[in-house]
DNA sequence: ATTATATATAACCAAAAGGTTATATGAATA
DNA sequence: TATTCATATAACCTTTTGGTTATATATAAT
């Protein structure tokens, strides 16, 4: 299992991902959304890129960042599989659980 | 949001959870499974207990740890929900994905 | 060509995380 | 009772993490 936990383990990074959900953004735009410095944001972006959760495209003097949804989906599946195995869960009920937050037929 | 990312963000702790899936274990047994010291393991156990992902039962001189499956499921649900929101995920396709490991229709 | 803008990078810092050893304590056993 | 075993805890160390400021570089605009 890749270390998506690390990448998602920081609230600034989670917020960056939330921003990128709405659409691609330049580094400048991302920096502007926070109270921390450009190098600090850059480090977060680097971490997200190391985990392949976002990717970077050079556009002149800009760096445009976008969500790597394929990778996120893989991460999602890995985690879902992991928890399903761990709990001997029926994927069906887990699916409901995530989607609706309901039907906790606790088969622990 | 509780700090599940922190609790699950360490591979030693995830391994401990895997061990506890098989059944309750004493601290001694858990320590024996790793190359790190008893106090180090104890710290990991404390973190997992702080997040209520495991619980401890005193049995004489032993501490018996058990997985709190309901809470673990909640923790994973939280993370899965976060990623699902990022992806606007249809969980139907994910079901296939996990079950058959196929159909990577990269919708990046 | 000069200046301004966007980003990259180096050097540094404080706090947190994960580990250690040494030792105390409480329960079981010889 | 003395000893051993399982665990707890204190003190400490190193590395990582998340941040800083200062400065370099590359592109864009004057």
From TrEMBL, chains A, B:
* Ranges where the HTH arsR-type domain occurs: 1-87
Tell me the first and last residues of the signal peptide: none
UniProt cross-references to InterPro entries, sorted A to Z: ArsR-like_HTH, HTH_ArsR_DNA-bd_dom, HTH_MetalResp_TranReg, WH-like_DNA-bd_sf, WH_DNA-bd_sf
Q: Which SMART domains match?
A: HTH_ARSR
Molecular-function GO terms, alphabetical: DNA binding; DNA-binding transcription factor activity
List the PROSITE patterns hit by this protein, alphabetically: HTH_ARSR_2
Gene3D superfamilies listed in its UniProt record: Winged helix-like DNA-binding domain superfamily/Winged helix DNA-binding domain (1.10.10.10)
Which superkingdom heads the taxonomic lineage of this protein's source?
Bacteria
Keyword vocabulary terms for this entry: DNA-binding, Transcription, Transcription regulation
Q: Does the keyword Plastid apply?
A: no
What protein am I looking at? HTH arsR-type domain-containing protein
- What species is this protein from? Ornithinibacillus bavariensis
Classification lineage: Bacteria, Bacillati, Bacillota, Bacilli, Bacillales
């Amino acid at each position: 299992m890749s270390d998506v936990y690390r990448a998602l383990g920081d609230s600034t990074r989670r917020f960056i991902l939330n921003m990128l959900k709405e659409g691609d953004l330049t580094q400048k735009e991302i920096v502007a959304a926070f109270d921390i410095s450009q190098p600090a944001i850059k480090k977060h972006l680097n971490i997200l890129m190391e985990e392949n959760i976002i990717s970077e495209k050079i556009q002149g003097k800009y760096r445009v960042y976008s969500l790597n949804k394929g990778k996120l989906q893989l991460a999602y599946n890995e985690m879902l599989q992991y928890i399903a195995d761990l709990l001997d869960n029926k994927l069906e009920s887990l699916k409901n659980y995530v989607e609706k937050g309901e039907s906790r037929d606790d088969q622990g």
